[in-house]
Write a structure and sequence with these properties.
single chain, 182 residues, alpha/beta, Rossmann fold, 6 helices, 6 strands, 37% helix, binds S-adenosylmethionine
């Protein structure tokens, strides 16, 4: 399956190279994600769509969980061969990634993970009202959301294979913790 949609190649900037406002928002997000990993007693993270490995940076300054990542824009291995190697002691994390992927690919990934009973932690941007506010703060922000899947579309795909157990409101987005349906 083809991973990359060339019309919308978007990567969150490196946390060390962005402006102070964005850095604050991002750091807060990654810290809350890591807090959730701790609360759920995981020791290992698989960071799917890791971009500039911002989560890895904050992890190394805080909890230091074992960390593995994969980014389709950088890694050329078959994702399913990579996912095959993770076990259910690892939490699958994808922060602002699913919105850029094709629905069929998301469905396949979720089916694959759910069969292995892998728990997942996602960050999903909320819809238009909040995006519009951000657009006024950050130049070029709008293009991050052009032709992307909506919050509802992503949740509908998730709910086919996973139960949403917890949702944490991050104002611009929700952190969502899910367990596979039996
Ligand atoms: C907004 S970045 C998020 C990076 C990282 N998760 C973070 O929070 O810093 C979006 C990620 O989605 C994936 N992505 C973006 N555009 C894509 C595309 N056109 N095709 C496939 N994957 C894409 C890449 O993995 C990219 O790093």
């Amino acid at each position: 399956m083809n991973f990359i949609n060339k019309k919308k190649l978007i990567v969150t900037p490196s946390i060390n190279e962005t402006n102070i406002v964005f850095k604050y928002i991002l750091k807060n997000l990654y810290k809350n994600v890591l807090k959730k990993v701790k609360e759920k007693n995981f020791l290992k993270i698989f960071d799917f769509g890791s971009g500039y490995q911002n989560l890895k940076t904050i992890n190394s300054e805080t909890y230091n969980f074992e960390y593995v990542d994969f980014d389709p824009l950088r890694n050329k291995e078959n994702i399913f061969e990579v996912l095959e190697k993770i076990d259910n002691k690892t939490i699958f994390v994808a922060l602002n990634v699913f919105m850029y992927l094709e629905k069929d690919l998301i469905s396949e990934i979720l089916l694959f993970l759910s069969k292995k009973k892998i728990k997942i932690l996602l960050n999903i941007s909320k819809d238009y009202f909040f995006k519009k506010q951000l657009f006024f703060i950050f130049r070029n922000y709008k293009k991050n959301f052009e032709n992307t899947l909506t919050y509802e579309e992503q949740c509908d795909l998730i709910k086919k294979r996973y139960n949403i157990i917890e949702k944490e409101n991050m104002f611009f987005s929700d952190i969502i913790f899910c367990e596979a349906k039996i």
